[in-house]
Design goal:
By secondary structure, the chain is an alpha/beta fold. Helices cover about 45% and strands about 15% of the residues. It has 18 helices and 14 strands. The strands form 2 sheets. An 8-stranded mixed beta sheet has the order 3-2-1-4-5-6-7-8, sandwiched between helices. Helix 11 crosses helix 12. The protein is globular, with a radius of gyration of 24 Å. Bound molecules: nicotinamide-adenine-dinucleotide (NAD). The site of nicotinamide-adenine-dinucleotide has 28 residues, from helix 1 and helix 5.
């Protein structure tokens, strides 16, 4: 059993803290947000992540997991401190490192014994060295420490599963002993462990996210071509995915990527490249294609309704993906803004994202469920592929709507079934001919 401190109790920090506690370590999780820590100490979750509340409760009860706001308290007995603070987008697309900087200064001032500082936040290449410089210059008396990069690859919505079953653990450091000690913390996870230098580990994170974002933009470009040529992108993606050189993941055409990671990480990588005089043309295309997806959905809705001015549009889903309450960079909110600018009244329903979305955009009217949302809507736009949306009573939805129009930004419905159910339905890349009608549905026997 080790004692571990985790700085930052957001999506990554809380999962890391709960996960290491569940593996039998004593974990002190720290945040500067006093309300968050007070809430956690009363059993209130600041975020929704499946299974997290139970895991935290179990480990708090076992006295393996503690929540504090004081750095000296968090670092009193620990040899390991994970930094898991936010690295949001800065003004020019670069990562804003102000939280990392302030965490590094607080660690330097509070440490009383040798420490391994492990950076889990996604940070520009070279940040590990910068953190080491900050700690050295801010320490009141010199105490040895090492910096290890340990990028996080978890996905919101399946974060605990990902923590417990990572594809790999990447560790980067100039200090091999420190990296090996951190590797030992991860041994119970039984995943491949790769030790590199600091900058390579930091780059692996950006390259991974940029690659996954590229796959999404790639399939969205294919979806556009499918629409022109009468092919069905869902089947194209399945047909591609069976090839083990390609694989099935991140090939869902639709509204494009969002969330707190892909948009800012692709932008930050492009920024790093441009700063060094490189022209990151593929990354720029990935971002352009992604932004176009929002416009495409709006154009599609306008085409079906004539105009959205004065119309009531219902958004099915607000979060950037299912099984989370995270609305950061969610395509649904971009759609809401664009539609509101064009004079539409926006209503929405989401199983987890409504309270955060209401704070971000108070003018969105929230509904209690999908059926209540459908009431008097001129069109429904599917923005998030929550499972509960896949099995709705379509007759009930159609009867509630003023106009039976569904624009499916996540391709969760079958175009044929939707036509049979009486909807004017448009998905994305689903074999529509130039006249907007489904051209080539799957073959039938007759
Ligand atoms: N969310 C994800 O799915 C995900 C996945 C992989 C990597 N990441 C990366 O992990 C990092 C954290 O992301 P997140 O989504 O958990 O962020 P988040 O915004 O949910 O949480 C960050 C937390 O850090 C706290 N904090 C800020 N400054 C602090 C300080 N000086 N001391 C202590 N606490 C401080 C904030 O109060 C907040 O609770 C980011 O760099 C992100 O890019 C996120």
């Amino acid at each position: 059993m080790k004692e571990i401190a985790v700085v930052g109790t957001g999506y990554v920090g809380l999962v890391t803290a709960a996960g290491f506690a569940d593996l039998g370590n004593r974990v002190i999780a720290l945040d500067v947000d006093k309300r968050k820590i007070e809430g956690l100490n009363k059993g209130r979750m600041p975020i929704y992540e499946p299974g997290l509340e139970e895991m935290i409760a179990r480990n708090v009860a076992a006295q393996r997991l503690f929540f504090v706001t004081s750095y000296p308290q968090a670092l009193k007995n620990t040899e390991f401190v994970f930094i898991a603070v936010g690295t949001p987008e800065g003004v020019d697309g670069e990562a804003d490192l102000k939280y990392v900087r302030s965490a590094a200064i607080s660690i330097a001032k509070a440490m009383i014994a040798p420490l391994i500082v492990i950076n889990k936040s996604t940070v520009p290449v070279g940040t590990g060295d910068w953190v080491a410089d900050i700690i050295s210059s801010e320490q009141e008396t010199p105490i040895p420490f090492a910096v290890v990069s340990c990028p996080e690859f978890l996905r919101e919505g399946s974060a605990l599963l990902d923590f417990m079953n990572p594809f790999r653990t990447v560790l980067g450091s100039t200090d091999l002993d420190a990296a090996e000690k951190v590797a030992r913390l991860h041994l119970p996870l039984r995943a491949p462990i790769m030790i590199t230098n600091l900058r390579t580990a930091e780059m692996i994170k950006y390259a991974s996210n940029a690659f996954l974002a590229t796959r999404i933009s790639f399939i969205n470009e294919i979806a556009n071509i499918c629409e022109e040529l009468g092919a069905d992108v869902k089947e194209v993606a399945s047909g591609m995915g069976y090839d083990s050189r390609i694989g099935p993941h991140f090939l869902d055409a639709g509204l494009g990527y969002g969330g707190s990671c892909f948009p800012k990480d692709v932008k930050a990588l492009a920024h790093m490249a441009a700063e060094k005089g490189r022209h990151p043309q593929l990354l720029r295309a990935v971002m352009d294609i992604n932004l176009d997806r929002r416009r495409l959905l709006i154009e599609r809705t306008e085409k079906l309704l004539g105009s959205v001015d004065g119309k009531t549009i219902g958004l099915l889903g607000l979060t950037f993906k299912p099984n989370t309450d995270d609305i950061r960079e969610a395509p649904a909110l971009d759609l809401a803004r664009l539609l509101a600018e064009k004079g539409a009244r926006i209503r929405a329903y989401d199983p987890q994202g409504m309270s955060r979305a209401k704070q971000a955009m108070p003018e969105i009217e929230m509904a209690e469920n999908a059926y209540e949302l459908a009431r008097d809507c001129d069109a429904l736009l599917v923005c998030t592929d929550w499972n509960e949306f896949k099995h709705l009573d379509l007759a009930r939805i159609r009867n509630a709507m003023r106009c039976p129009v569904i624009v499916d930004g996540r391709n969760i419905y079958d175009p044929k079934r939707m036509a049979q159910a009486g909807f004017h339905y448009r998905g994305v890349g689903r074999g529509y001919g130039p006249d907007g009608e489904p051209e080539n549905s799957s073959p039938t026997r007759d």
